Every structure is written in structure tokens, then in C-alpha cells.
Amino acid sequence: VPLEEATLQPIPMEEFFSAPSTQYLLPILGEVPSGEPPDPKTCSPREYLEFYIFPVLLPGLAALLHEAEKENCFEGKRTKFIPSDFLTEWLYNNNPKRKDESFTELFSIPFVKDWLKDHPRPPIPLSLLLSEEEASILIQSFWRGYRVRCDSEIQELRQWQKKLWEERHITEVVKKFWTKQEAKGSVQNG
Known about the structure:
Blueprint: H1 3-7, H2 14-17, H3 45-70, H4 83-93, H5 110-118, H6 126-129, H7 132-150, H8 152-168, H9 170-189
């Protein structure tokens, strides 16, 4: 059968939904339905899902929901919790083929490392990393600093410092100082 014909065949949906809903129970990790496992290459889509996918995926999704609840994802619109990251890490670490291996963090998983080399992530915004208390402290300290800098005496002091820097050529003095320090360092190391 050519590839195009095989991929365009309609999926018999009655195989997915033919059993009564009471038959669908959340499986325990690694627990497969009773009986001999079917050949994964020739079995029906329903058998493949029941024997090879659901016993691992459904407990992972349950763990994902518990973790999302712990991270308060259901309370606000934005959160630092990334469900796909959690599920990837969980599925990798709970893979029955890796049952005797130690826990591996998401960014230490080999295929994740390879993917991130070619597709680097933008940093998580600070607003998602800070707690409400930490954010309020930052905002308050910024506001207090702003109010102090607006004070006329502070403005006068800042103008005086700026003028002093310009008159004494502080920038050149600092450059000369570091040039001397670098020369001393290269003589000691050489």
C-alpha cells in the first residue's frame, strides 16, 4: 500500500468510543490491560492506545494536573509553570525502559539539550519568577529611590558630582589606573 493511501485512510472512530464509559479507568503507571499484548505494528488503534500509550500517558497527565494545582495555575492567567516541560520530564523519568535509572532534570535530557541548541528559549519574564511579596518589595524600593532622586538637594548633589567628574577628567584617570594595573598583572604573570 503506498504511503499516501495508508495515511489518508479514515480512522474508524467507533473503535475509540465503542466501550461504555464505565470501562475507562485511569490506569496505574506501567499497568496494561490483562491479556497478551498485541503486536504494536499490526494491532488496532484502540489496542495500541490501551496497551502502549494510556498506561504511561494517563498517570502523567494526572501528575501534571496535581503539579499545576500546586503551582496555582488555576488561579491566574499567567504562571511560570510550563506544562509541556513538566510532562516531558515526567514521561522521560517514568518510562518503563528507564526504571532502574536515576531522575534526570528536563534540561539534562539528551534530546532536550539537542533541541535547545537549535531552538534557544527566551528567558522567563521576571514578573513570572517573582512572588507577589518580592515584586512588591522591588516596586516599593524603585518608588522610594525615584522619590529621593526627585528631591532638590539630591538633584543638586548629582549635578555637583557630574561637574566634578568632567572637571577632573575622572574617566581618563580611571583608564590610566587600569592600564597600569594590567601592565603590572602581565609582568607578574609573564
